[in-house]
Amino acid sequence: MAVTRVFGARIKRREDPRLITGTATYTDDIVIPGMCYAVIVRSPYAHARIKGIDVERARRHPGVVAVFTGKDLEGKVNPIPCAWLIPGSDLKTPPHPALAVDRVRYVGDGVAVVVASSRYAAADAASLVSVEYEPLPAVVNQERAMQPGAPQIHDGVPNNVAFHWKVSAGDVEGAFQGADVVIRQRMVNHRLIPNAMEPRACVAAYNRGSGDLTIWMTSQNPHIHRVLLSGILGIPEHRLRIIAPEVGGGFGSKIPCYADEAVVAFWAMQTGRPVKWVEDRRENYLATLHGRDHIVDLEVAAKKDGTITAIRGTCYANLGAYLSTAAPGVPTILHGLMMCGAYTIPNIHYEVYGVFTNTTPVDAYRGAGRPEATYYVERLVDMVARELNMDPVEVRRRNFIPKDKFPYTVATGITYDSGDYETALETLLRMIDYPNFRKEQEEAWKEGRYLGIGFSTYVEICGLGPSQVAGAVGFQGALWESALVRVHPTGKVTVLTGASPHGQGEETTFAQIVSEELGIPIEDIEVLHGDTEMIPMGWGTYGSRTTAVGGAALAVACRRIVEKGRKLAAHLLEAAEQDILFEGGRFFVKGAPDRAKTIQEVALQAYLAWNLPAGFEPALEATAFYDPPNFTYPFGAHACIVEVDPETGEVKIRRYVAVDDCGRVINPLIVDGQVHGGLAQGIGQALYEYAHYDDTGQLLTGSMNDYAVPKASQLPAFETARTETPSPHHPLGLKGVGETGTIASTPAVVNAVVDALRPLGIRHIDIPLTPPRVLQAIRQAQGR
What we know:
The strands form seven sheets. The protein has a seven-stranded mixed β-sheet. The protein has a five-stranded mixed β-sheet with strand order 7-15-14-13-8. By secondary structure, the protein is α+β, with helices and mostly antiparallel strands. 28% of the residues lie in helices and 24% in strands. α18 (668-687) packs across α19 (740-756). The longest helix is centred in the last third of the chain and has 28 residues, at 546-573. The mean pLDDT is 96. The protein is globular, with a radius of gyration of 28 Å.
């Protein structure tokens, strides 16, 4: 039976059977006759001159096909580009060679590549490459890197400052002078390492006869990779095909164009032999981009009644050794512009210094700038409440943007599309029984138990677009999305989407959209993506834009199909076109529902073309390129309840409740999955995960033995609920949900821990709140 109303249906992900039975195809599953294997030799030094590289022993090793260094690529492989050039920031973009030539700038910087007939032979030979280094002083802290006398990482970049960006609105100085309360706080948003199920991988195959290069790779945006690699490799774009099979998760780490894929593809082009490269987990920790890494000096001004009048701050963003693809946009456009949060804060001044250091490059990691902004704003709101001895819930209420004020332009200049923050908060408070919790907390404190609750009422920026805005803020690309919907003669449907999902479940939700629009059973709809030769140009998956932008393109294409089908149905039913209605997969005459044709019947006639109206082109398909008129702005209210052990500093999450509003919900099951995954990552940042370098630039948390990814046993059973406030400009009212949990959860957890320790007078602890760090704060507060 046709599914005609699928929004809100808890349909299981159709991707899952192949993923959980081992029948899915990942990049490492690709095998081509004559294929070789590449291993990249990486620098053990964070900063050093390359005095010489001896590859002769490696070349003589059995099975070795080739060994090449950075000098072999000079003039043949162009530098790796940065694709977000922030205007008005005096951005400096030093060259990023595919392999280091004269100097390495972080531990993991590639210096040579060994290609052999087997992975084992390549690894053995790589150990025989001898590199003579002259170690140089390194710097890993962004503030130290800006100081006079600090090691200079790139020529022509004084004090290692890549850019200086700021946003300012209102009378900030006046607001601080007239404030009843001014709070100053330094906060650290530490560095994180993505942990995708499958590390990065690529297989490159070059056909010398046709000049075609095909690359299978772990990509979140195959078409962007095609554009960038075309320029890097000097191959015409129409000769380059990028295929993203199962990606194994990304969290932003598979957005950028890396040097590694470029050097593997170069070797395949040079020799005509296919080559595979798959990083191991240690290599993944060293060379795949990292996330976050801010140090921020913040101030907030408020009145006695809890009204927040101004925020100002200076952010020092660690960019690592090179500018990654989108790195400059993360701490500026995606971060600085969100410093108003969900509140009517009229005065903002925020500056960002992007700084080079001898560390792995930093780029977009789940949430990309929004988690950092939410963390700072939500911590400041709690500090205002603490200073004024007010309930943090009441301070939030007093500063919320009212429901009737949307669309609302915040001080930083962006316009939130819609919101109902009060309803989300009230739903949350009912779920946790807030008054009773405060009574329980008072009793616990009397017993010497440190129980706390933390809130996060957040708003985020999603559905990245429109393209004009992208250009205005320096993004060297567009942010529209494409969709092609083809109804076959038998009534089955093929969907081609330029978005490239990698675990979010869009093969299911996109089929639900098409089923909703066309009234065709969901099992009759196939969704294809991730192949630049098959799919119309698209801009990929990141920033929770897949459904918000790609789904909108699908809806527009489906509606064009309905309009074309209406013309043919009118002809077949011998009725006026304006009298033809479409509902539940049937075209019927107004007032005579029995005079009808199913969309399957119309499709067949469109292809047979025996009886078409004048001027009607055969077939039934449509293409849409959707450029959104604005971003979308999901929001919500989260609460975390914790208990802190004063003897060990251990934080135990007793309860976590999330109320999110992502506009209309297509599939609650998938939304819950996205929220749960995001919560795990945000809680991981709050309590466990921490990428730590020593002063020489060695990554001390370079494996899962040292980098604490949270275990299932450390996470609570999440409680979720939703409100629905549709986006007024989106064809389906959607907003996006992929990053919600990560954005909201970190401040909720930290606010809960600080609330639990309120009797000790503790006001702030920098994340991650590991037991030693919490215990140290407790002992200092107790004078021990």
